[in-house]
Specification:
Elements lengths: L13 E2 L2 H8 L10 E4 L5 H9 L5 E5 L2 H10 L6 E4 L7 H4 L7 E6 L5 H10 L4 E9 H8 L9 H7 L2 E9 L4 E2 L6 E8 L9 H12 L6 H4 L25 H16 L1
Parallel strand pairs: 2-3, 2-5, 3-4, 5-6
Antiparallel strand pairs: 1-8, 6-9, 7-9
Amino acid sequence: MTAVRPKKALGQHFLNDLGIARRIASTLDDYAGLPVLEIGPGMGVLTRFLLETHPADRLTLVEIDSESVEYLRRTLPEPQPRIVEGDFLRENLTELMPGVDGPLCVIGNYPYNISSQIFFRVLDWKDRVTCCSGMLQREVAERLAAPPGTKTRGILSVLLQAWYDVEYLFTVSENVFTPPPKVKSGVIRMRRNDVTDLGCDPALFRTVVKTVFGQRRKTIRNSARALVPSGADTSALPWAAERPEQLSVAQFIELTSHIQALRSS
């Protein structure tokens, strides 16, 4: 069978190590009964291992590359999973997985160039996505799992960890891809935690996190000024002398509550 030609514009680097593909697929072994959405299956190296533990009628693939879609339809064994040709970032979850109205899992060897956007989208679906795992650029994977006090901690670290337990599982060499990327990859798994209510305005929480990390070299005292009424004393905010990467999710929630009170006064 003719292989799919990797396309640089789509950030395609096809995994050719079956052992690693099996390890990535196994991150969903605890969720064998749930529907699974695989993003960017390419030539289906991960798909074939997913099919060993997940029935085809519970697996949906979304792939933007028409050449890959044709290859998958030609080579995947019957019965085949549902294959959707489209851009995951533009798709509606209900249309992607019709008839699925409960919890589901997301997995993929995510394109480096849109991986952060993918995880922001997963965050929008946090009430449905109970587990999300897969491979992405190592630096991004490390950032998603970064604990408080680390320089790699950023916006997605906090936003995702508010709703998920994020694990960095293992590193993957650049030499197991065709073509090899210029950087190493990392595999993560995110499991939905039991939080249903942050205890503060979730939209303001998101705004606070994005705003202070947008000026991450500044202390909270300075970066939060844009979030409160003119003349408000930001030095009285909790952790005013800290920089955003120092704060835990719980501390960001408390900070948000204080900012909300200042905005309401």
